[in-house]
């Protein structure tokens, strides 16, 4: 209601409406908090409800005069970025655990690919589609889940995703033909994709830029740990219990993860504010309590159309998203390629059993573990470099190191895995080096993308996930023919040369990244929206 007396009007919200340089993105939040605290000291009655009454403010229609703009009350823990570290880590670990669950689903089935081939009397190529279709779903799903999460919240997307992932894993365990198996895997992969694209957004919701490095590293760790643990588990389960138990284990595990999502709080600030405004309207009967987005009054369907198109627009118009998606797609495809290259190197060439072949993937896990141990030192370097202000390019040091180490690991694998006379430890060492390079590249690149696009991090990651997953999905269709047709050594050499060719990408963005971001519409919008 309009006031009869003039008063000072101050509008504060976590959704920024004035342009700021992306480099200073997290300073916005701090400045906003200071403004709110200063305002609260002189207006204690307004602080109680965390509402600022707008009399007349430029840019709004006359019918919006007197609207009560709902914002966060400083120090109350309403703002997700003000939550305690214990709560933040609970959320980070839980949502990352969801990523572990769904990525396990992509690789555990490699533990026994011959079982369904023999039972259904079909070809190996058809059964390989159980991986291809699942990973294709990983790529398509984020185009829906990521934009919707930015409109309705993160938690509803996790709930829907894990519920249907669990439900559509069951038909695979009960399948009586290859068609049922492949179709169920396609739908399960589609359903399972929400954690892959939304966890980065959830982390950006609750952690400041300075604190975000280790949580992002943990998230990236689970993304790659799942595919690496899958063959280790699957090899022994398939050998001892049969191929159907691979799917029963995934069904039980996904059901447990669905239960975990029931206890996740919402982290997206605009959604939290909308719920607060709705609660105030209900409790007071006063319909003037509204959020900034509600005042702007854009129809939901209009917002939905924009949000659904955003990942594709970013994939084709944003240089950062385009180039980093290409690089990460290659790295992710290499991981899925190893699911088939390791059995060739160890089962075919060195005659390891199925269970022992699965154990060889522990070498990649060791490399990932070494990288994770070194990441805290990387965070200290980042903190030292950003004392005077954060900037996303400071995240790229790990990726620049990985760009050098990755081709070295592939050269090693090509020239040691191909020959039985070379001790089996040699290709395992190359696997560890590959695991190390993979995680430092992915953690660094993911952090750079999230820092660059902030509020639209989920859409940026969805765009990256789309390309990455579609390329990785093609690997099972040609990898056997590639390694047997070209020869193990030359196929590995080709991959190493590709890694050398794309290696300069992080160096280019380290030098020119700030200039590129300043010309980006999406990057600046992302900062303005926070």
UniProtKB/TrEMBL annotation:
CDD domains: MFS_Tpo1_MDR_like. InterPro entries: MFS (IPR011701), MFS_dom (IPR020846), MFS_trans_sf (IPR036259). One of its GO terms (cellular component) is plasma membrane. Its main location: membrane. It is a multi-pass membrane protein. It is found in: Membrane. The keyword Transmembrane applies. Residues 91-516 form the Major facilitator superfamily (MFS) profile domain. The keyword Membrane applies. The chain crosses the membrane at residues 89-106, 126-145, 157-175, 214-233, 245-273, 320-346, 352-375, 396-416, 422-443, 490-512. GO terms for molecular function: transmembrane transporter activity. Keywords: Membrane, Transmembrane, Transmembrane helix. This is Major facilitator superfamily (MFS) profile domain-containing protein. It comes from Marasmius oreades.
């Amino acid at each position: 209601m309009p006031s009869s007396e003039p008063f000072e009007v101050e509008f504060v919200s976590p959704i920024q409406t004035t342009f700021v340089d992306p480099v200073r993105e997290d300073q916005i939040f701090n400045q906003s908090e200071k403004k709110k605290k200063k305002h609260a000291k002189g207006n204690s009655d307004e602080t109680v409800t965390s509402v600022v009454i707008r009399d007349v403010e430029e840019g709004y229609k006359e019918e919006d005069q007197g609207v009560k703009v709902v914002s966060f009350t400083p120090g109350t823990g309403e703002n997700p970025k003000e939550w305690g570290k214990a709560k933040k880590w609970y959320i980070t670990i839980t949502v990352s655990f969801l990523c572990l669950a769904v990525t396990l689903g992509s690789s555990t089935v490699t533990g026994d690919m011959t079982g369904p081939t023999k039972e259904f009397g079909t070809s190996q190529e058809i059964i390989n589609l159980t991986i291809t279709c699942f990973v294709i779903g990983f790529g398509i799903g984020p185009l829906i889940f990521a934009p919707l999460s930015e409109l309705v919240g993160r938690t509803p997307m996790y709930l829907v995703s894990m519920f249907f992932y669990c439900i559509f894993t069951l038909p695979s365990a009960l399948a009586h033909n290859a068609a049922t198996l492949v179709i169920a895997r396609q739908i399960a992969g589609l359903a399972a994709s929400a954690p892959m694209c939304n966890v980065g957004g959830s982390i950006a919701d609750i952690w400041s830029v300075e604190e975000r490095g280790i949580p992002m590293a943990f998230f990236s760790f689970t993304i790659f740990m799942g595919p690496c643990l899958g063959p280790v588990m699957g090899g022994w389960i398939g050998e001892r219990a049969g191929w159907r138990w691979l799917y029963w284990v995934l069904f039980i595990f996904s059901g447990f993860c669905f239960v975990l999502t029931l206890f996740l709080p919402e982290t997206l600030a605009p959604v939290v504010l909308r719920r607060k405004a709705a609660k105030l309207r209900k409790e007071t009967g006063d319909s003037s309590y509204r959020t900034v987005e509600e005042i702007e009054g854009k129809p939901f369907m209009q917002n939905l159309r924009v949000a659904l198109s955003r990942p594709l627009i970013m994939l084709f118009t944003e240089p950062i998203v385009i180039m980093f998606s290409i690089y990460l797609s290659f790295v992710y495809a290499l991981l899925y390629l190893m699911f088939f290259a390791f059995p060739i190197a160890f089962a075919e060439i060195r005659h390891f059993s199925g269970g022992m072949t699965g154990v060889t993937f522990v070498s990649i896990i060791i490399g990932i573990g070494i990288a994770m141990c070194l990441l805290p030192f990387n965070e200290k370097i980042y903190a030292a470099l950003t004392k005077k202000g954060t900037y996303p390019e400071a995240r790229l040091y790990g990726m620049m190191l990985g760009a050098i180490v990755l081709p070295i690991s592939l050269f090693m694998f090509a020239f040691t895995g191909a020959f039985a006379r070379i001790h089996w430890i040699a290709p395992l060492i190359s696997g560890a080096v590959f695991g190390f390079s993979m995680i430092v590249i992915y953690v660094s690149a993911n952090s750079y993308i999230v820092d660059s696009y902030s509020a639209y991090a989920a859409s940026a990651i969805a765009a990256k996930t789309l390309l990455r997953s579609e390329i990785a999905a093609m690997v099972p269709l040609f990898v056997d023919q590639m390694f047997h047709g070209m020869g193990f050594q030359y196929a590995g050499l080709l991959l190493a040369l590709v890694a050398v060719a794309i290696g300069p990408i992080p160096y280019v963005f380290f030098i020119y990244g700030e200039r590129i971001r300043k010309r980006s519409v999406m990057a600046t919008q992302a900062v303005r929206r926070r």
